[in-house]
Amino acid sequence: MELPPRSITAEEYAPFSLCFEAAFGIQPTEADLELWRKAVDLDRTLAVFERDEVVASADSYWFDLTLPGARTLPVAGVTRVAVRGTHRRRGLLTALMRTLLDEAHGRGEAVAVLTASEGAIYGRFGYGLATVQASVELSTAHAAFSRPVERTGRLNQVDTETARKVAPAVHDRARRRQPGDVERQDWYWDVHFADPHWAREGASGLFHVLHESAAGDPDGYAAYRWKDNWKRGNPANEVVVVDAFADTPAVEAQLWRHLLDLDLAAKVSAWKRPLDDPLRWLLADPRRLEVTSVRDDLWVRLLDLPAALGARLYATTDRLVMELSDGFCPWNQGGWALEAGPDGPGRARRTGPREPADLRLGVAELGSLFLAGVRASDLARVGRVEELTPGALARADALFGPVGGEPAPFCRSGF
Ligand SMILES: CC(C)(COP(=O)(O)OP(=O)(O)OC[C@H]1O[C@@H](n2cnc3c(N)ncnc32)[C@H](O)[C@@H]1OP(=O)(O)O)[C@@H](O)C(=O)NCCC(=O)NCCS
Q: pTM to 2 decimals?
């Protein structure tokens, strides 16, 4: 008989991790387990035990998410969700999610986010799909830019130690400008720079490239791997881009130019790129940036509406009344009036008896709108949002839409 979910002790870390790794077909070494230990905050873990064995696990980080309007909000980043194959489909994930969301709500956490192993799992718990990611490939023979890149400052290939000192600060500035992006905490950089074998997927270890401004300040970082392919003796190697971010679009363009011009490479690929990739607009032949897959990425679960909706900015000034359903977290259920605009945080409050709703929607749909990457009218067309006041959908599209010319939401990091 399984026991109710509880947090683990330091001694239980290894079996807890192994439960998760086994569900993904991974057999970690001792060194792998040690590398990840720092990423685990024991108080935020949950495990289901049967006798002394961990049979199901879940965990969450506590990190910043960037919201529309360049605001940041600490959120629960749900991770390490797994149920042993021998215990699947008995309700253990449901029990874990119940406890995880109740505890997060109890701690005053407004939002939970996750990336899913499969797209069909989390909608039932009130998570709404909020961002997508694309994998791309580009032949280096067709990678000319439509305008020449102005070279400023200096590009340099650096060792791991040097990159470790400067890349995190460049990233921290970049993620604050990108809605949907999350903070990279120390554990993330530990894993990135340790560059373990399982992360390489048949490619080389990481190469690190830094850009410095003319004044000598680091303002851009790229990391890539090299995949060998000498086709009948001719170089057809692949550059696999892991990171490319900078303080300005002009420096980011210089990083891409460098990656696309590496000798002996026939192809450049990247696994996680935004759908509105700025690289496409740099290219003289945009069709050559081939999208090899598009996948759901960030799922957003709103836990505390006033705190969540009050944390972002909005594109227009309006007052929108919503009739919200939330079967899994019923404290959110009912009428909410959102008064919001571009100049300050929005205000969500319970409606009174004489405030008819403009829109009827579920909490997952509101989670989809939250980062400005999904339009209420698109959800309405498939029956997932209902317009109750004529014109309300167009108003909701405008209100929840991108703020002040920001890009579509996108999360650069996996977690
Ligand atoms: C996905 C996983 C966590 C589900 O755990 P579980 O304990 O079997 O889930 P539950 O029994 O609580 O299922 C709850 C509901 O979700 C459904 N469900 C569970 N996993 C599903 C999946 N992969 N796809 C679609 N539906 C799923 C169940 O059918 C059930 O539906 P119902 O309420 O209509 O009966 C588990 O199968 C697992 O560990 N898989 C491998 C690792 C993984 O993918 N982890 C998730 C990381 S994001």
A: 0.97
